[in-house]
Amino acid sequence: MSYNAPSDSAALASARPKPPEKAGTWKDFIAVTKPGIIRSNLIAAFAGFWMASRWEIDFGLMIMTLLGTMLVMASSCVFNNYFDRDLDVKMERTRNRSLPTGRLTPKVVLWYAIILGVAGLSVLFLFSGVLAGIFGIVGMFVYVVAYTIWLKRTSTWSTSVGAISGAMPPVIGYVAVTQTVDMGAFLLFALLFLWQPPHFWALGIRRVEEYRVAGFQLLPVVKGVKRTKFQMIPYIALLVPLPILMYAYGYAGKFFLVVSLLLSLSWLYLAFKGLRAKDDEAWSKKVFLFSINYLMVSMIVLVLNTLS
Q1: What sections of the chain are H helices per DSSP?
Q2: Which contacts (CB < 8 Å, 24+ apart) does range 179-188 have?
Q3: What is the pLDDT of residues 136-185, one digit of tens each?
Q4: Which CATH number describes the domain made up of 25-304?
Q5: Which residues of the chain have pLDDT under 50?
């Protein structure tokens, strides 16, 4: 795969979004919260809550915890859109978002992020407990400050550090029930933390030239695709023992053990297979889609097979 494509880079850099035909609508306010990210993380938060509850569900607590988590995640994503607006205009995938096109103004988006964040943290502290609120703050700080403002522009460590924030939702759901940090919280954190870098790097390989033009210090941009493929393997390999540990500690049953173990081994196989792949774009697309299904299936099976 070639990395020297000046004509493509110039085309991407020179492309500009069309002037907005009208002001932002409610759809734009929803879009800047990144609903896809919220949906997958809410499933993870729900799985964490359910695993801790062991089928004895306090539905009022569950609803407020999911609401608070959703608002905190939405706030973080809106902040991300606000601070990345100068970079989003350079990428084909993001240049038609609400901020780059001018459908929403930076001032409106900033206040929107602040209001969502205050509301979300208030709900968590008031209804889900101090620990849930603290983990909500940690998730926001890491995603907005450490990842978006700092590392995304300066270091290849951005993806790994940013994964801390993505691992917070299931932990928030879990500690809302237990009001303590124990092995269950650590295992949930590990599952989501280890899943994220190989998931995002697969996307990075697919769109490496866009990220290069935008100035993101992403691993495949700085170190190359081959190095990225090798670095994905340890993260995926460390996912393999997690279902075994969750079963051994009594957090999930045999069905989760078998399904999650097979999924982890299959992903690891795909990762090793990628070392010899001739078409990096096709391979990375397959891995990216597999990673999405991996998380969705794992969380669903964990809910269904949580031990009472």
Answers
A1: 6-14, 26-31, 35-53, 59-83, 85-88, 98-101, 106-123, 130-141, 152-154, 158-166, 168-178, 183-206, 208-214, 219-222, 225-239, 241-248, 254-274, 280-304
A2: 179/129, 179/131, 180/131, 181/131, 183/249, 183/251, 184/51, 184/52, 184/249, 184/251, 185/48, 187/242, 187/245, 187/246, 187/249, 187/251, 188/44, 188/47, 188/48, 188/51
A3: 999 999 999 999 999 988 999 999 999 999 999 999 999 999 999 999 99
A4: 1.10.600
A5: 1-15
How many C-beta atoms lie closer than 10 Å to residue 229's C-beta? 26
Local structure of residue 149 (DSSP, 8 states):
I
Average pLDDT, the chain: 91
246-285 in b/e form (b: 16+ CB < 10 A) is: bbeeebbbeebbebbbebbeebbebbeebeebeebeebbe
User: 2 vs 16, 86, 221, CA distance in Å?
Assistant: 25, 26, 12
Q: Which of 86, 93, 77, 84 is nearest to 208 (CA)?
A: 93
Say whether pTM exceeds 0.70: yes
